[in-house]
Each structure stands twice: as C-alpha cells, then as structure tokens.
TrEMBL record:
UniProt xrefs under InterPro entries: Glu/Gly-bd, Ionotropic_Glu_rcpt, Iontro_rcpt_C
Origin superkingdom: Eukaryota
Chain segments annotated as transmembrane: 162-183, 418-443
Location of the Ionotropic glutamate receptor L-glutamate and glycine-binding domain: 45-105
Entry keyword set: Glycoprotein, Ion channel, Ion transport, Ligand-gated ion channel, Membrane, Receptor, Signal, Transmembrane, Transmembrane helix, Transport
Record-annotated Ionotropic glutamate receptor C-terminal domain positions: 35-395
Protein's UniProt name: Glutamate receptor ionotropic, delta-2-like
GO molecular function, one term: transmitter-gated monoatomic ion channel activity involved in regulation of postsynaptic membrane potential
Amino acid sequence: MWLSVLVLSVWWAFSAGQTTTATTSAAQPSVQGQFFRVVTFEEAPFAVKSTTNNETSWRGFCVDLLEALATRLQFTYNLTESSDGHEGTLHAGTGWTGAVGDVVDGNADMIVAALTITSHREDVIDFTKPYMEYGIGMLMKVPDVHGTYDFWAFLAPFTLEVWMTILGSSLGVAGLMFLLAAVRSRLTRGALEDEDINLGTTLWVSVGWITGDIAIPGGISIKVLGLSWGIFTLVVVNTYTANLAASLTVKSLQTSINSPDDLIGQTAITYGIEVDTAMHSFLQDQEGLETTYDKMWTQMQTHPDGLQTSLDAAVTRVREGDYIFIHDGPWVEYEVLHDEANSCQLMMVGNTFLHRSYAIGLPHGSPYTEELTISVLEMKENGEIDELTTKWWPASGCDLHGGSNAVGSGEGHVIAEFYGILSILGAGAGLALIVAACEIAWFNLSVRKKKVTPATSETQEEMIRRVVRECLRETAKVEEYNLDDAQHTISH
C-alpha cells in the first residue's frame, strides 16, 4: 500500500511540474527565433546615425548592446529611428510622441536607446532592469583665461572695505602723531617740542611703514604709536602679498555655478534643455510646486534658447558662450571628452544631479521583458556592460571639468595683467613731473622778485666812461682831503 502511495505521489508531482512548465512556456514565449522592430533615437554615444549612398547605418553603445543581446538570445531585428527623432513625451490631446509613442501605437516592438525610466512611461510601456545609472549634467564653454584680463587684479586680495580701512587708518595715525607732538609741546611749554614733526612728516611716516621706510621722528610716545602702526602694517602687507601671489599664480576655471540653485540665483548665463525628453517632462511636472526646478522651468520659458529642438543646435549655442545646456550626464561627458578637434572648448559644470536609469523599453505586458532583463543583468555581472562603457567613454581625451586649459604657476604672466599697477606708477611719475615743474616755476618767480634789475642797460663804452668818472671823482676827493690836511697843519 505504501509503495502504491509513493508511486502515485511521484507521478502527481511529475505531472504538475510538466503542466506548470507548459503553462509558463505558453505564457512567456522565448525570445529565441523572434523578430523585433527596434526603434532608437540619435544621441551620442548611445546611437549615432550615418548615411552613405542613401543607406542608413547605426553605431554606438546601444547598438553594440542590442547586437550582444541578439547574439546571446538568438533573435533578429530591424533598427530604425523613432518617428520624430526623440525619446518621447506625453502631449495633452495628441498622446505620446517619439520612440515611446511608436511602441504605444504598435509601430515598434522594442526601444534600445538612452531611454530614461519614468513613472509616466511605466504606465504605458514595460522596462527591463536598468543597464546604466546616470545623473543630469550641465555643459558649458570653457572660460577663455587668455581672452580678458583684470587690469586691477592687484586690488583683488582685499575688499573695498579693507582698502578704505587701511587708508583711514593711515590718515588717522598721521593725524594722531601730529596731535601728540602738538600736545606734548604745549603742555611742556616747548620743552618737548619736536621740530621735525608736522602734518606732512607724520603722513609720510604712516605711509613709510607700509613701503618699508620706518624712520620715526619725535618723542617716545610718537615712537610707541609708530611701533603699533608698524605691527599693523606688517600683518597687512604680508596678508596682501600672500593673497596676491595666490591670485596671480593660479587661475582656476571653477565657475560660481555648480548646481541648479546657482543657476536660478544669477542672470548673466542663460540655460536650457532639449524638448521631448525625460528632463522636459520632469520640469513640466514641477510647475507650480515652488521648487528649485519650478523656478528653473519658469526662467527657461522666458529665455530665447531655453528649449532646444536638437542636441546639435544646443552644442552650437554652448560654443557661443554664456550658456549652459542641461542634459543627461553620459551625453555631456561624451561631448566633453571628444572635443579635442575644437581644442577642448567644452566642460562639465559641477556635479551631476537627479540620478536616474536607462533601460530597454517594450510594449506594456510584453512576455519578453523578464528574459531580456536576465540577459542585461548577466551582461552587467560578467563585465560586458563595463567593456562597452570603456569603449565609448575612454579615459583619455579632454579634461571633463576644463582643467587642461588652466594656467598653472609655471606659466609667465602677460604684460596686460600689470596694466593696472603700471598705470598707477605712470600717474605717480606724471604727478611728480608736474610738481617739479611747479616748484621750479615758483622758485624762479621768487628769485625774480628779489633781484634788483637796473633801470637801463649800458653799452661797454658807456660803462668805461662811468668807471673813469667815478675814479676821477674819487681822486678829486682824495686831493681835496690832502689839501685840507696840509692847511690845518700850517695853521698850527
């Protein structure tokens, strides 16, 4: 009896297993031997289209991924571009556009592209497990470090408030020195009078501490004040020197814009996105929520270049300058790394944000989703996805954040960087010449006033006659004196 029960149990389990396998096979047919109408859209390096002799061919990361899946699962396919060349968004009244619309409308069986998983798309199509995770990046033109120069860069180490404080302190110390000398002289009835102290000398002393001339005239109290002023100027001069050296030897390309919050906090640089993308749908959903992305969307709609119709047009606008294009991080990285032909004009700004995932899209309820998902996961686990990533995003190329265009400390500084300080030196020299001319003119004027100028000029002959007459007159006076002296002697 027990043997009969055991045989029946084994037979029932075997029958149930076969029934379950048959049912599963019927519900989820294999991908093997199937033909798929695959759509994609152009976005380097995922899918890049080229046309030769009216024949279109595709290459890129997703093309290699599709070929690897087809070889692994033994299916065939035909790869075409989506109806409008975009990934697709939902438009009120007209439905889905782009690659998503092609699958929803039954015109395609699979989407293999840089297709982002979103909640709206999950409602109408199925996704495999992600084959790549990414974040949104910002693309801009590398600032031209040799294009413009700050002629007044030597003032940069200190703010305006600091410069005004130094100037005020210098004048204050000069005035206090003069006041101390006057008080000492008055209260000691001139016993402690400082002959070399006046407002001019104290001003030069205060400035001299800064420039290195530390001779201090006057008494001990004035020297004490000068000593404290010297300590102050020592700190100021060394701080200025350190900051100036740092600002002149390192020119950083780090921009003040590193995040979406920085974008909405300025107006000098405009920014935009591509239409009919996942980012476009996301920003539309943020409208009215008073978030950072809502403010971005509001400002973008007012910018002439806020909504780009193609990636090529967006890159062209970025190269013109003062513009940031917001798009998927892998695309931004590819554009930057492969910009060597244009002398590495592009760079990624800051870090990525809004991290999301790419996956393969299929019709809603597709029986092939699970099998494709398993294959994608196996390719990630055995390193095939990493090999494709390395192939299309090489480690070499332009610097991602524009560092290859930075000016290091080893480079010489151009003369334009010293125009500001040279202009001050020139102004000082010019003022010195003017002061010298005024001094000479004043001296000559003073001498001219003191000098006795003869009423009339005389010729050489007239001068001789005048001298002779004066000599004769003196001789006559001598003879008259001698005659008078003789007469006086006779009378006595």
